[in-house]
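Illustration 12: Peroxidase.
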Amino acid sequence: MGFGILLKAITLWLVLVLSSVGKSNAGFGLRLGLSKASHNRKSHESGHAPKGYHGKSRHFKGRRVGHGSNKPPSFVPPINTSSPPNLPPNKYTSSPSRPSGLQVGFYKGLCPNRLVDIESTLITKVQQQFRQDPTILPALLRMQFHDCFVHGCDASILINGPSTEKTAGPNLSVRGYALIDALKDIAEEQCPGVVSCADIIAIATKQVIKMGGGPDYSVQTGRNDGLVSRAQDVNLPSPFLTVSESISAFDAKRFTTEEMVILLGCHTVGISQCTFFQDRLYQGNTQFDPKMDPILRKQLQPTCPKGTTSNNNSTFLDQNPQSSNKLDNSFFVQILNQRGILPIDQALARHPQTIAFVQQFARSATLFNNKLASAMVKLQALDVLTGNQGQIRKTCSRIN
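Figure caption equivalent — predicted structure in token form:
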């Protein structure tokens, strides 16, 4: 009987021991199963490995941690398989790489404070200047054209020096430099080393076109600044060219005849000095224009006395008093009525290759705006420097 009691006690003890071992193994297996499931879920559901993880080995900050080593592993940061929290973006992040090529909104996110819209900031300053002085419209239009037709739209016209483009004869009366410098100061304060002077000219010109009654088009940005500015390279179409010669000059820059006509139509704003047209007013000169509206001729003669050489005597290019400071199609109506000022302007309304365009633009303000918008986008993209070409000047008037 004593032996039977002992046998029962031993049997009960074995049952308890085996039960304990089973529970321990089951718990170990469950923990491994969860760990593997968690790892597989991260690898497959996300579609990519965690940052710093490559293939069958994990790399963290230069350390390679293998599997199956008999050596005690060094510390390995845990892989977080949960979704990252939705944190607000840090507005002071390192600037992303500069895109290449022209595009609308090029500077978005490129300033140290990525919330800054530098183009809008510059536009606000241009608006203030236009309200103070609407004549900044023809000034910037002229600057843009004179810059783009020499080495492309690279702000080479802004460079100071004894023999730079700024000193060439056709550019001596160009103005608007102070506004461009002021805009560059703003750009450097809020977005240092990012915004080019060439883009500042384009942004400002587009804005004054809009405020002056012209089309509102989307200006592309992404230009770099040029490294060359020589007065000897300035070869702009003269107001004394024939229509055929002017067509050839624009064709050399890849503009069509229609685009030439619409760009010359920007003479609907601005003034001209008497020296460029006074010979059309008086008989006995080779440039005398007998077809000019006689009323206009009589009105201009007191302003431009015969033989005057003063640069202070000038008149509006658009002789419509209600439209002289407005960028519209009035210019084309005026030249059809033989009231053009510059020789090339009036010739557009008399030449068989251009008169049809003049008539179309005179009839339709909408057509004028649409064509001018397209021509300005093309002009402002003329032979631009992008990507690694040129530089971003710190000061617009000198090369870095």
